[in-house]
Every structure is written in structure tokens, then in C-alpha cells.
Design a protein that fits this description.
This protein is α/β, with parallel strands linked by helices and 477 residues long. The protein has helices at residues 2-19, 40-46, 86-90, 103-113, 149-159, 186-209, 224-227, 230-243, 317-329, 348-364, and strands at 50-54, 65-66, 69-70, 117-123, 163-169, 215-219, 248-249, 274-278, 293-297, 332-338, 383-388, 391-396, 404-409, 414-421, 429-435, 441-446, 457-467. Helices cover 26% and strands 20% of the residues.
């Protein structure tokens, strides 16, 4: 049994070395390690499979509309639109009073959905803080609602056994020292220094206030002004990690000294996991560089904060499930975004996705939680492979018309001995279909023709049949 894992690990290592053409320039602020983190915190994160993102802030009040007009961008960016005056937006907090907020209800729904970690927007690009920060007046404490929202969310999700990561935007339109281009004058420089001091203080404040938080999810770090601060940002990262051993930070926090983001000048991942997969998934393991990654995904096209009127296609739970299974089969996690309305209600479309996904995960979650990608086995048209504890999982999205799920296992793999459906609704037959020309062993799992499923279904394949050593005599060509 160990053998099949060994083969998979060797294949994964080959992927890691093949995708990034590494150089080895000496860097002061590049990656802090080569290869994945191996500690328990990161192992835990890696096994989460499914996460929830929540974008919430005063932008939920306009909900993507102002003065009878609809803003075409993402609802949380409405302040940047000339259809809504800045001073109107900047006073919205005076009416932010989400009386319906029930963080325990959100957290319970997330647990039932099968979510293992959540990312919550403490402040988005507008700078409005959902916690009572001591470093600005632009916070929830000065809204009619007054109460600490970050604290309620952290407590409620932690109580449900869901890990909390805090989203924090480096862009802060509310701070007078914030700028996107590097400072040119001494005054601009002094103001930016104040902004840096403020940013550091807020991050320390968040970690001090919320001790159960396991990660920081940075955003808005693409400004040249921030990129040029590589040395300072790197030292801030060390400081934050020293405060919270095991803290998880993705690749959107800092650049190296040459301005390279996500992957440093040598091609090595900066920080703990790749955050470049936004609203897009890799198609094959080779594109993942063999690193940890997650993909954050919206239900409608590109709306994170609440948009009153969703236009265009909204992903079905089935589509989200396929993205989730695909992500795990390629070594990543999927983080599904929710954008509650101004009162704190989760919208019906999101609740529907949560309950459909949750029902499926309850039956089939074994194929995903803690599962690993399967390298070296050719993907088949029926769906996706994952692997855990010596078992191979086949999640079938496209059921073959003859009900035969075909598998090609390379030589050297153990031989499977049985197969079962995780939903237990029918028996399957494991059929030895010989070898192909390359001497891969062919297997078929036959699903009864009267087995009905309107959802993707999972087959669990058990091994123990010994190593497949047989050779097929090739005809000469
Ligand atoms: O500009 C933001 C956007 O509003 C949203 O928060 C997403 C989530 O990953 N991040 C930025 C765009 O990458």
C-alpha cells in the first residue's frame, strides 16, 4: 500500500520541480522556505477542502446601486465609481445598523455546509473597520450598531469548530497617508510612514483581540508604494508570526526586493500558500507548482459584497461542487464567497448553495477532507480522483452511458480489491479489464443501470490485491 503513495509523492515532487524554472539569486526578502510547510497548522489547513469567504461592510447598503443607477463593477468597489459621491459613501456608516446579524446562525449554516475554515473581511478597501479599532474613528463603534462584529463572527465560527482567518485590505481609502504610487516628496513620505505605522498597529490589534484566529488573508497589496516596502513588510510578517505561532499567511502579503509578488525572483512561493487562483482553477497539477493553494470563488460573476440585483449567470450548487472536487483533486481548497445584505441576512441563493453542498458533503466528504491529489494517473472524462488513507476516490460527474467507470492504474500500483458507492444506494462490481499497450492496468467499476443519482456520486476503491507485476507482450510494430 505504501508503494502507491510513494509513486504519487515522487510524481508530485517531479511536478514541483518541473513547473517553476528555479534560479538561485541571493534574496533578502524572498521565500522563507522551499517546498510546503510541514507543521500541524498547515497540515490542518491543507485538509480543509472547503472554506467560506464573507465580504461584508457598509457597501452592503447601496448594494451596487446608487441614485437609481446600477454600478457595473463589484459592489464593494462602488466608492470608486463616479456615480456615487465619495462623501455620501463615507457617511454610510452612520446608518449601518445590521439588526438581523446572527453570527451563530451564519456559523451553524457554514458548519452544515461542510465548511472547515472561513475568511472574514475585517476591513475592505474603503477602510471601514468591523471591529472597534483604537487607531481610527471609521469603525463599527461609531455606527448605530456599535457592537464588535469581528468578535461575534470569530467566536461563533470558533464555537462551531470552524477555523477563522481574517481578511485585511492593505488598500485603505479612508487613511490620509495611504497612497498607491510611491511617495515623491518628504511630506508624502512622512504621511506614508504614518500609514505603515497605522497598518502595523491594526494587525497587531487584530491578533491581540482575537486569539483563536489562525490566519491573515491579505488583499490590495499590489500597489507600487507597498511593493517598494518589501524589507519592512517582511519584518512585519516575522513580527506577526512571532505573535501567533503557526499563523497562516498567503502569497498576497508581500513582494520580494525586486518587486516580484506571489513567487519570488527565484520562482519560489512567497509565504504559505498561493493566492493567485481567484475565480479560476488550474486544469492540471503541473499548473499548481506543487505548492499549497486555495481558490476563492463568487456565486455570480464578480460580486463579493452584497449586490442587490445579481445579473448574469449564478453558479449552481452542482457547478460549485465540481469546482470543489476539482480543487481538491489538484491539491487546493475552494473558498465560496457570501455577501450578506445590509441587515446581516444571508441571501436565499447563498443559503440554497449552502444546504445543497452541505447535504452532498455529509455523504461524500470523505473523498475530500484531508484528501490528496493523485499524481501519475491519467484523468478520465467521468470526473476526478482523490486519495486518502490508502483509498482511491472517484467522484463521478459524467456518468458513462454504459455505467462503466474506467480507471487506468500505472504499473507498480497495488491492485484494487473492492469498490463501493459512498452513498450506499447500490452495490458495484469491480471488473479487471486487463492492460493497455503501456501496460497500465485497466479496471472498471460497474454501477447498476437502475442506480439513480441526480448528483455527482463517489466510488471508494480499496486496495490490497498485491502489486501488479504482470507484463503484456507487445506485438512488434
Ligand atoms: O479588490 C478585491 C475584491 O473586491 C475582492 O475582495 C477580492 C477577493 O479576493 N480581492 C480583490 C481583488 O482581487
Amino acid at each position: 500500500m505504501k508503494k502507491i503513495f510513494l509513486i504519487a509523492i515522487i510524481a508530485l515532487a517531479a511536478i514541483a520541480t518541473q513547473a517553476q524554472q528555479r534560479t538561485s539569486v541571493a534574496l533578502k526578502h524572498g521565500a522563507h522556505r522551499i517546498g510546503k510547510r510541514t507543521d500541524a497548522e498547515m497540515e490542518r489547513w491543507r485538509g480543509h477542502a472547503l472554506g467560506q469567504f464573507i465580504h461584508w461592510g457598509v457597501y452592503a447598503i447601496p448594494g451596487g446601486e446608487w441614485d437609481g443607477k446600477q454600478y457595473n463593477g463589484a459592489a464593494e468597489w462602488i466608492r470608486s465609481w463616479n456615480g456615487m459621491p465619495n462623501d455620501v459613501y463615507d457617511n454610510l456608516y452612520k446608518q449601518f445598523d445590521p439588526k438581523k446579524l446572527d453570527a451563530k446562525k451564519w456559523a451553524k449554516q457554514a458548519r452544515e455546509m461542510g465548511v472547515k475554515y472561513m475568511v472574514f473581511t475585517t476591513k475592505h478597501h474603503d477602510g471601514f473597520c468591523l471591529w472597534p479599532s483604537a487607531y481610527t474613528d471609521y469603525t463599527i463603534a461609531n455606527s448605530p450598531y456599535k457592537k464588535d462584529i469581528v468578535g461575534q463572527v470569530v467566536d461563533a465560527y470558533t464555537a462551531e469548530g470552524i477555523d477563522v482567518h481574517l481578511y485585511f485590505s492593505i488598500i485603505d481609502w479612508s487613511h490620509k497617508g495611504y497612497r498607491s504610487a510611491p511617495a515623491k516628496t518628504p511630506e508624502e513620505r512622512a504621511a506614508y510612514e504614518e500609514f505603515k505605522t497605522f497598518t502595523r498597529a491594526q494587525l497587531i490589534e487584530l491578533l491581540e483581540r482575537y486569539p483563536s484566529v489562525r490566519g491573515l488573508w491579505f488583499d490590495g497589496s499590489w500597489d507600487k508604494a507597498w511593493i517598494e516596502e518589501a524589507a519592512w513588510v517582511d519584518s512585519l510578517g516575522y513580527e506577526l508570526r512571532a505573535m501567533r505561532p503557526g499563523l497562516i499567511i498567503g502569497s498576497r502579503f508581500r513582494a520580494d526586493e525586486n518587486g516580484k509578488r506571489h513567487y519570488d525572483t527565484n520562482g519560489d512561493l512567497i509565504d504559505d500558500y498561493d493566492q493567485t487562483w481567484e475565480r479560476a482553477l488550474p486544469d492540471e497539477l503541473g499548473q499548481t507548482n506543487g505548492v499549497d493553494w486555495d481558490c476563492c470563488m463568487t456565486l455570480p460573476e464578480n460580486q463579493w459584497g452584497y449586490q442587490r440585483d445579481w445579473r448574469g449567470h449564478v453558479k449552481t450548487p452542482y457547478e460549485l461542487l465540481e469546482m470543489l472536487v476539482k480543487a481538491v483533486s489538484l491539491g487546493g481548497n475552494l473558498v465560496v464567497n457570501f455577501g450578506p445584505d445590509e441587515m446581516g441576512n444571508i441571501r436565499p441563493e447563498e443559503s440554497h448553495a449552502a444546504s445543497e453542498m452541505g447535504a452532498w458533503m455529509k455523504v461524500n466528504g470523505d473523498a475530500l477532507y484531508g484528501a490528496e491529489p493523485v499524481a501519475g494517473v491519467k484523468k478520465q472524462g467521468w470526473g476526478y480522483y482523490t486519495m486518502k488513507d490508502g483509498k482511491l476516490y472517484l467522484t463521478v460527474f459524467n456518468r458513462p452511458i454504459d455505467n462503466r467507470i474506467r480507471i487506468e492504474l500505472p504499473r507498480g500500483w497495488d491492485m484494487p480489491v473492492s469498490a463501493r458507492l459512498l452513498d450506499g444506494k447500490a452495490d458495484t462490481e469491480l471488473y479487471d479489464a486487463g492492460r493497455n499497450k503501456a501496460n497500465d492496468r485497466l479496471w472498471q467499476v460497474v454501477v447498476p443501470s437502475d442506480y439513480r443519482s441526480d448528483k455527482p456520486f463517489v466510488i471508494e476503491l480499496m486496495f490490497g490485491g498485491g502489486k501488479d507485476t504482470g507484463e503484456y507482450d507487445q506485438a512488434k510494430i
